[in-house]
């Protein structure tokens, strides 16, 4: 394996780790349910996809046995993550999650009406 492919695979792994970290951070730090739903489903899917793509690339370039389970994991992840996020969002809309009071210990977000002339 040449150094160019090693750099490409390293970049894929680094991007994957970055996206997984962003998805995990958004799940922990964001306050509202819909914001918390968006981060892990988008960023973590990209992160795991980059890591699995790097793994497939390594096995192809190292002339080892092909690993079809990595492709199956990628396909399963890209199919199920958006569908599950969509179903959770629909359930949250039907339960009126946006109208519920915040959890104890979480400060509510302040609504600023500075740009609204009707608010004065």
Automatic annotation (TrEMBL):
It comes from the Bacteria. InterPro entries: PhaG_MnhG_YufB. Signal peptide: none annotated. PANTHER family: ANTIPORTER SUBUNIT MNHG2-RELATED. The keyword Membrane applies. Residues 108-120 have a biased composition (Acidic residues). The keyword rRNA-binding does not apply. Residues 99-120 are annotated as: Disordered. The chain crosses the membrane at residues 6-28, 40-61, 73-93. This is Na+/H+ antiporter subunit G. Keywords: Membrane, Transmembrane, Transmembrane helix. GO terms for molecular function: sodium:proton antiporter activity. It comes from Pseudoxanthomonas broegbernensis.
């Amino acid at each position: 394996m040449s150094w160019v492919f090693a750099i490409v695979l390293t970049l894929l792994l680094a991007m994957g780790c970055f996206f997984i970290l962003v998805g995990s951070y958004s799940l922990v730090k964001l306050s509202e349910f819909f914001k918390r739903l968006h981060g892990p489903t988008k960023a973590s899917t990209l992160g795991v996809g980059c890591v699995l793509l790097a793994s497939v690339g390594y096995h192809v370039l190292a002339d080892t046995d092909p690993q079809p389970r990595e492709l199956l994991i990628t396909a399963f992840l890209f199919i199920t993550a958006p569908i599950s996020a969509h179903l959770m969002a629909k359930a949250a809309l039907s339960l009126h999650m946006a109208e519920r009071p915040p959890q104890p210990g979480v400060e509510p977000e302040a609504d600023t009406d500075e740009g609204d002339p009707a608010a004065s």
